Each structure stands twice: as structure tokens, then as C-alpha cells.
Amino acid sequence: MAIPQKLVTELLKLPDEERGELAALLLRSLEPDDGDELTGKEWETVWGAEIDRRMREVAEGKVELIDGDQVDAQVRAMLNARRP
Prior knowledge:
Blueprint: H1 5-12, H2 16-30, H3 40-59, H4 68-82
């Protein structure tokens, strides 16, 4: 399913906080629905631990950081390649 470009354009105009809320909502929609919903505090705790783990991996040189502009260009190229 292709996401309409008009929708993407409008969503990208949202303020940062609203785009973040939308991103979190979309990510949660991908989680298995096993009936064990996390509270806001639990969610923060789980993601806080994940962020700490990722930051540790960067500090220890276990992962390579990629410039955001480079990632954006790569993603846009992949999306453009998928368009008919």
C-alpha cells in the first residue's frame, strides 16, 4: 500500500511534539496485542532502558552513527523507487 504523498506532506507540517505522538501511536500499533498494555510510566521505563542501551552501544563503539541527512536521503530514495 502506498501512502498518499499529500497525507505525508500534511503530517510533516505538524509540530515536532504532535509528530512524535503520531510516531509513538504508529509504533504501538505494531506491537502484538497480548492484552498487556503498558501504562505511561511503564512505557517510559521500558523505552528509557532501551535508549540507555543504545547510547551505551554508541559510547562503546559497537554501532556506527549515520548522519540524519544521509538517512533521510536514503529513505526518500527507497520510497521513490517503490512508486509506480
